[in-house]
Amino acid sequence: MNRRASTILKLGASAAALLATPAMAQTAPADAPQSAAAETAPDTSATPPQDNGDIVVTARRRSETLQSVPIAVTAFSADKLDKIGAVDLTDIQNVTPNTTLKTARGSNSTLAAFIRGVGQQDPVPGFEAGIGIYLDDVYLNRPQAAVLDIYDVDRIEVLRGPQGTLYGRNTIGGAVKYVTKRLPNETELRVKANYGSYDQADGIVALSTPIGDMFKVGVAGARLSRGGFGRNTNLNIDNYNKDIWAGRGTIEFESPDTRLFVRITGDYTHDLSNPRNGHRLISGLLSGAPVLANVFDTRAGLNFPKQDIQAGGLSMTANAQLTDHLTLRSISAWRKDTSFTPIDFDALPATDVDVPAVYRNEQTSQEFQLLYASDKLNGLVGYYYLGAKAATGFGVLLSTTLPGFDAYTAGDVRTETSSIYGDFTYDFTPEFSLSVGGRYTWDQRNAYVFKANYIGLTSEFGGTPTPFGTPATNFRGIANFKRFTPRVSLSFKPAADHLLYASYSEGFKGGGFDPRGSGTSAPISNPAAGRTYQDIYNYLLFRPETVTSYEAGYKGAAFDRRLTWALAGFYADYTDVQVPGSVGCLQNGVQSFCGITTNAAKARIKGIELESTAVLARDFAGIGSSVVLNGAVGYIHARYRTFIGPTGVDVANVRVFQNTPDWTASGTLTGNVPVGDGLVTANSTVSYRSLTHQFETASPFLDQPGYTLLDAGLTYAFGEGRRYTIGVYGKNLTDVRYKTSGYQYIRSDIAGTPIPDAAGKPFPTLGKEGVATAFYGNPRQVFVSVGAKF
Fold first, then answer.
1. For residues 314-320, average pLDDT
2. What is the tens place of the pLDDT at every residue in 596-646?
3. DSSP letters along 744-784, please?
4. pLDDT for 304 beyond 60
5. How far apart are CA 179 and CA 370, in angstroms?
6. What are the start-end ranges of the E strands in 198-241?
7. In sequence order, which residues have a C-beta less than 8 Å from that of residue 301 and are 6 or more positions away?
8. 481: helix, coil or strand?
9. Is 222 helix (H, G, I), strand (E, B) or coil?
10. Residue-averaged pLDDT of the chain
11. What contacts 687, CB < 8 A, 6 or more positions away?
12. pLDDT at residue number 592
């Protein structure tokens, strides 16, 4: 742990210690507000009802039912996640409207997240995430190691729209909250095992026990493994396999009067899966290698560095109820991850476009919140600090250059950000409420970008390189950004089970420098002076982007709460859109690839979302029996108003939103029937996603037409407290093949239509074989799961 991390954690610990005395000196009255500890670590001794909207969420940093919170939010309890057979965070995208959560290209662990058209696909440093991923209230600054495996979880919440006045980091498009289980009051052992298709074999164990009256300790571990969906026929290894070890340890302290709660958690994940290599969509333009029949197969030849992804962190949350109305919370965290990965763009044995890569990330954060709760006024004020380091190293090995030639690119981006924020809700009457919030953010980016040519690999990949010419880019730059973002929401409850709301909010994502940018590509502003530092600075810099969002919603219930719904309509102006990408380029006369990022676009986004639950039958086969239909529909109309292309021409009419299908829809039918001393639950989910573009330019190679998936599950829970479970689950039962991402370096016009060579073949813009490779979603999988709690 670095010095800053140690300092931050000590600061949080000191705060907890100082708060302990006044908190423990008081006695909580019977009608005191619920302790804020519940927001971070809720009691999970009983599963909340899933058929009437009463699931408890903490979208506004206090416990509220899903149907009473005036925010577009989808929530998944641990029970629901178990019964749909969810394995990792990406499994919830199909039942969440206008949301994309997918594994990004070459690993099992890097996340690409989009909500309502806003997100970030490029995992290199320098770019802030458009969607905030929170692990127990700790913001994950980088997408590497953010595909969180689902084990020992209490719930997952997906919040749509800008989230800047309630959460640690200002997130422009939405937030995903992954909340782990609070430790139980008695000694408990939970075990779970899965076995299924492709030799899937998972084991999860969680053990916890109280120590005295005030302390609890717990550990949880997971071994997640699976054979490949395909093969790398060149290296003779599995492709799309899974080989993950994960663990978490927790210590909790709660004072006898429950006014002080401290939770310390450490987690670690080690992903040793093989690299996920893409499937070529075109035959080799030089070798003539044919397209493989199985879309999960590859011929990729790059096998260094060995794929190895390690991630972990420490966090401490302290909640002290100072008075009956005031609670002070401290959230301290340190996280670090390292990802070594071989990226074979051309997916062929030859060294054509091969990129050995390493990502290194480290972050330290500290957050303080003062929460106020009373009959009419509820809210908080907070301070957030994040210090983060993100660095990459890319070797670029091309067939178009000398043997052993490496067009090396390195980027190192340091982030220092602080913000103050607040959000308060005042209930004028039991029917009318007004929420007002705001956030002021200070961001600083300190970047180093280096591009140079070598003969031989650099030392981080085990080489001893010889420089080849002078560095093409050797740039250091600092940029500062600041912004105030407000939020206002008005709520009206015409009846107990009905809520109407309207909100206005702004989101802000800081700018930075493209860590793969080329200084030699910077335009020269003054020919007499030549290319200056300021020219390079201006070229590599990209400005912040902002979203101004309007939303109106209606949540309600009818027929004795047998029917519940949440309807939201939204409209957003998206300005200075950051458009990252990479292109083939020349570095000192040698072919390479370069980052090119601009604030090219303005966009308008509007849409509608409907989530509903209908209890079709209840107690028809004994107490506890039911038939429930859950539905979710999202429509989004996201269009660029302006998009200035590389030639300075507005090409908005031929640009599209990436990872944002116009339509997302799902329906889940669930039946519950008591059998013996247990409960049988059967469910089936049909989900649909319309045409999805992988990048801002349409691609006949990579774009995925609309597709439908079918999942199903059957679970039997029995024994005292239903402590035993056995289930069988099927995912993608119709075995649909659908693309999730890919790479393309093929000459095309401004609309994305390929421009062939004289022989009618695709013309490569990088390498000789042509790069058009795709990655696919999981095929049909069936697995059995057994679990027990002692």
1. 97
2. 777 878 999 999 999 999 999 999 998 989 999 999 999 999 999 999 876
3. EEB-B-TTS-B---TTSS--BSSSSS-EEEEEE----EEEE
4. yes
5. 21
6. 200-211, 215-226, 230-232, 237-239
7. 234, 235, 344, 348, 349, 350, 351, 354
8. strand
9. strand
10. 89
11. 94, 95, 664, 665, 666, 667, 708, 709, 711
12. 67
φ and ψ at residue 424, rounded to 5 degrees: -130, 145
> Could you give the CA distance from residue 741 to residue 772 in angstroms, rounded to a whole number?
11
Report how far apart, in Å, the C-alpha atoms of 309 and of each of 108, 148, 218, 403, 606 are.
9, 13, 25, 29, 38
- DSSP character at residue 736: -
List of residues 6+ apart from 236 with CB closer than 8 A:
none
Amino acid identity, position 451? K
Under 8 Å between Cβ of 411 and 448: yes
CA distance 41 to 63: 11
Report the pLDDT averaged over residues 674-684.
Answer: 94
The pLDDT-based confidence of 743 (bands split at 50, 70, 90) is very high
User: Is pLDDT above 80 for 10?
Assistant: no
| Type of residue at 176 | V
Which pLDDT value is given to residue 120? 84
559 torsion bin: left (phi>0), alpha (psi -120 to 50), beta (else) = left
CB 769 within 8 A of CB 350: yes
Give the tokens for residue 595.
């980052």
Query: 48, 212, 140, 188: which is closest to 790 by C-alpha?
Result: 188
Peptide bond into 465 cis (omega under 30): no
CA atoms within 13 A on the CB side of 752: 19
Distance CA 668, CA 386 (A): 40
**Which residues 6+ apart lie within 8 Å of 403 measured at CB?**
none
Least confident of 37-51, 101-115, 697-711: 37-51
Which run of H or E residues covers position 330?
Answer: strand 326-344
Rounded to 10 degrees, the C-alpha dihedral 146/36/430/55 comes to 50
Q: Locate 628 and state its tokens.
A: 């429930």
- pLDDT (tens digit, 9 = 90+) per residue, 118-139? 998 878 887 888 899 999 999 9
Q: Which residues contact 11 (CB under 8 A, 6 or more apart)?
A: 332, 366
- Give the residue among 67, 47, 157, 64 at the shortest CA–CA distance from 561: 67
Structural tokens at position 113: 């997240």
Q: What is the pLDDT of residues 155-201, one digit of tens each?
A: 999 999 998 788 778 788 999 999 999 999 999 999 999 999 999 99
What's the pLDDT score for residue 590? 67
In tens, the pLDDT along 382-397 reads 999 999 999 999 998 9
**Exposed, middle or buried, 623 (CB in 10 Å: 0-12/13-18/19+)?**
exposed
Q: Which residues contact residue 293 at a Cβ distance below 8 angstroms, ignoring those fewer than 6 apart? A: none
Dihedral in degrees, nearest 10, Cα atoms 640, 644, 646, 652:
40
Nearest to 728 by CA among 197, 149, 108: 197
Which amino acid makes up residue 760? G
pLDDT digits (tens, 9 = 90+) for 277-295: 999 999 999 999 999 999 9
Is the separation of the CB atoms in 189 and 207 below 8 Å? yes
Q: Which H/E stretch holds residue 243? A: strand 242-254
* H or E stretch at 13: helix 3-24
CB contact at 8 A, 128 and 510? yes
What's the whole-model pTM score?
0.90
Tokens representing 425?
A: 């809700």
Q: Which residues pair with 394 in a beta bridge?
A: 357, 409
pLDDT at 8 over 80: no
- Spatial CB neighbours of 527, under 8 Å, sequence gap ≥ 6: none
Residues whose CB falls within 8 Å of the CB of residue 589, separated by 6 or more in sequence, listed in order = none
Amino acid at 275: P
Structure tokens at 259: 């006014």
Q: Which one-letter DSSP state was computed for residue 288? A: -
Residues in Cβ contact with 50 at an 8 Å cutoff, skipping those fewer than 6 apart: 77, 79, 80, 628
